[in-house]
Amino acid sequence: MRSNPYPSDQPALPRLARLRAFDHVARSGAMSTAAHFLHVTQPAVTRAIRSLEDEVGTPLLERRPGGSFLTQDGLIFARRTQRFFQQLSAALAATIGADAQSDAVTRLSRKISDVHIRSLIAIWKSRSFRGAAKALDVAEPTLHRPARDLERLVKTPLYRRTLDGIGLSPAGSELARRFALSVVEIAVGFEELAAHQGSAQVKTTIGVLPLAPKRLLAIVAEELLRVHPKSRLVIQEGSYDELVVSLRSGASDLIFGALRAPPPFDDLCEENLFDDPYRIVCRRDHPIAQIPSPKTSDLRKYNWVFPTAALPRRAVLDTIIAEWRLSPRVQIETNSLGALIADLMVSDHLGLLPREYIDIDDRSDLAALNLRVPHAPRIVGLTTRLDWLPTSFQSDFLTVMRKQSAVQKSRPQ
User: Fold this and answer.
1) Mean pLDDT of the chain
2) pTM (2 d.p.)
3) pLDDT tens for residues 336-358?
4) Is there a domain that residue 341 lies in?
5) Are residues 355 and 385 in the same domain?
6) Is residue 5 in some structural domain?
7) Domain for residue 29, yes or no?
8) Which PANTHER family match (predicted)?
9) Per-residue model confidence as pLDDT tens digits over 358-405
10) Are both 239 and 304 inside the same structural domain?
11) Which domain holds residue 238?
């Protein structure tokens, strides 16, 4: 068994004719049934599956007098192949405004090739035909042929002229995102096959919000990797909007941090891990930090480092200032956590941060005031795709994260 044979910047996608043949034999158990459904000869189905087995580097089917039966590796790959075609049908259905189970979508799906999918994803990632052609190392007219053929098949404008040349329309971008998400299933299938053979790493990409308790994540990662030493965690910090884009395109597997409750898209779901109340913070030698139990009136002589308006903390701070009649003067406003901490350390300004960032992440240079913030605590949890099917490595990550989070959940507010 060899690892994914595709370069990391290209979709891990075999020819769709091979995947279709395998999918139908896997579900029917017979080469002849698959050949009849696909309107090809039985030898053509046999050749397609043998080519796919050569590509993945392991037998997927065992041929016996009673039919064709999935091997253990075949069971692994069949599950991902079936999900790939489900995602593909859903993508096409959304584009043409039809039901995913309709005959129209079934007929259209049979006409889609791996070249169509690769081309659209490349244009989406590169933001133009010119950039996509360069990324794929083909002439631009060569890219235009499958791109325009796909547009003809779906009968929907997929492209528009931009400052960088010809790029994707909103419909084209959404179809490309859904195509990318479907290809993830096949890429994960390659990884699961490699893991089953013990010959390669399994990778999980976690999007982390800036104020997520990273020490907790580190504890989870170390415990997990002791059990899965060949696997790999990729941890990428970013804004919520950036991480949602990555998650919905399949570039990442989950988001760790404060939940939005509800999430902004109906294809996402959230899991509550524990509450994380806000705390008023300052430098440890700040005058107000020396008061054991400060009152709200003690805060009135100090100004704040304000979060920018787009951050959830800003609405909380605005409410506190209004209710407690504190100084509303805005001298510094930032979305940078580093800038906030730096200013608190050299001034008498106050700030607002979640408890877990201060306590778990050992911010020994900060002090949290013994003063309850009159606001519902934010909720730390996991955001995933609604139809996500985790690998065994990812399932173990969830198990360890839930166990460690239970410890935090038991802490007093």
Assistant:
1) 92
2) 0.89
3) 999 999 999 999 999 999 988 88
4) yes
5) no
6) no
7) yes
8) HTH-TYPE TRANSCRIPTIONAL REGULATOR YBHD (PTHR30419), NITROGEN ASSIMILATION TRANSCRIPTIONAL ACTIVATOR-RELATED (PTHR30419:SF8)
9) 865 455 688 999 999 988 889 999 999 999 999 999 999 999 999 999
10) no
11) 201-275+379-409
